[in-house]
Write a structure and sequence with these properties.
Residues 83-147 form the S1 motif domain. Keywords: Cytoplasm, RNA-binding, Transcription, Transcription antitermination, Transcription regulation, Transcription termination. It comes from marine sediment metagenome. One of its GO terms (molecular function) is RNA binding. The structure is a single chain. By secondary structure, the chain is α+β, with helices and mostly antiparallel strands. It has 4 domains: 6-77, no CATH class; 85-145, Nucleic acid-binding proteins (OB fold (Dihydrolipoamide Acetyltransferase, E2P)); 148-223, GMP Synthetase, Chain A, domain 3 (2-Layer Sandwich), CATH 3.30.300.20; 225-288, 2-Layer Sandwich (GMP Synthetase, Chain A, domain 3), CATH 3.30.300.20. It has helices at 25-31, 52-79, 149-159, 161-164, 194-199, 204-213, 227-234, 261-265, 270-284; strands at 6-13, 22-24, 40-45, 85-93, 97-101, 106-110, 125-134, 141-145, 168-176, 180-187, 217-222, 240-246, 251-256. The strands form 4 sheets. The chain has a 5-stranded antiparallel sheet.
């Protein structure tokens, strides 16, 4: 059986006026002869001497303190994990959020952080990205995401050892979450093909990532320091005949065959918009 020790802080005074909070100097020096007036000393008290009301109050206060300590521990644990992937189970679906059971506590997957075409089923096991953790009176508030670009990056780190080890670097990610994503990769070793490593044998690695995204297309682009080559790579699988660069105006004209035009532009021009963002960032980073 465990032992409970109850201590109360008392102030050392010359004359005791409140025996519940004060102790005389003479009594205090029986505990510690170096104690002086004004010091605080811890005195053990016997809980069996408490009244029923006092005992009930003490029990309530202790339970509240334990609950608050548990909240603080949970907050510290999940705060350290911001930016990581976590697995959980879909527990409850509401109009504007999904409640995810994370084991020790629950996380919130807001509608804006949910994949567009995914059907979240109760009891389903999913991976999410810990976007933000805040301290709240009822416990830590954990906001999750499946639409953040870093969620996709973390999936690559989990499924592609070369990415996790830093051999293959992810230079940039652009996502239209639930529809399509472009991932720019570069290999730090000549013998390692960055695109091949991310795809895996017979597409095993990319398929594992796509299963988490349910319908979102992911294009892996090989990085190149040559602007024209990089643009060609970014527009694949469309076959680009020629890229004409206008360095002065920071423009590029891309020439493709008629049957490749729709493939290069993409649905509603999404390819051109996304590639433009990637290339503009690429130029701003001084990579071109």
């Amino acid at each position: 059986k465990g032992k409970v020790q109850i201590l109360v802080d008392k102030e050392v005074v010359e004359k005791v006026t409140n025996s519940g909070t004060e102790i005389s100097l003479e009594e205090a020096r029986e505990i510690n002869d170096k104690i002086k007036l004004g010091d605080q000393v811890k005195i053990e008290v016997n809980p069996f001497h408490f009244s029923r009301i006092a005992a009930s109050t003490g029990k309530y206060v202790m339970m509240q303190q334990i609950v608050e300590m548990e909240k603080d521990l949970l907050y510290e644990e999940f705060k350290k994990r911001e930016g990581e992937i976590i697995s959980g189970t879909v527990r409850y679906k509401a109009d504007h959020f999904i409640l995810i059971d994370l084991g020790k506590t629950e996380g919130i997957l807001p509608v804006r952080e949910q994949l567009l075409n995914r059907e979240y089923r109760q009891g389903e096991r999913i991976r999410t990205y810990i976007l933000r953790v805040t301290r709240e009176p009822k416990g830590p508030r954990i906001i999750l995401s499946q639409t953040h670009p870093i969620f996709l990056k973390r999936l690559f780190e989990l499924e592609v050892p070369e990415v996790e080890e830093g051999i293959v670097k992810i230079i940039q990610i652009k996502r239209d979450a639930g529809r399509r994503a472009k991932v720019v990769v570069e290999s730090g070793q000549k013998k390692v093909d960055a695109v091949g490593a991310c795809v895996g044998l017979r597409g095993s690695r990319i398929k594992a990532i796509l299963r988490e995204l349910e319908g979102e297309r992911v294009d892996i682009i090989r990085y190149s320091e040559e602007t024209s080559v990089f643009i060609k790579n970014s527009l694949k699988p469309a076959e680009v005949k020629q890229v004409k660069l206008d360095e002065a105006n920071k423009e590029a004209k891309v020439i493709v065959a008629d049957d490749q035009l729709s493939l290069a532009i993409g649905s509603r021009g999404e390819n051109v918009k996304r590639e433009r963002k990637i290339i503009l960032l690429w130029a701003a980073m001084g990579l071109g």
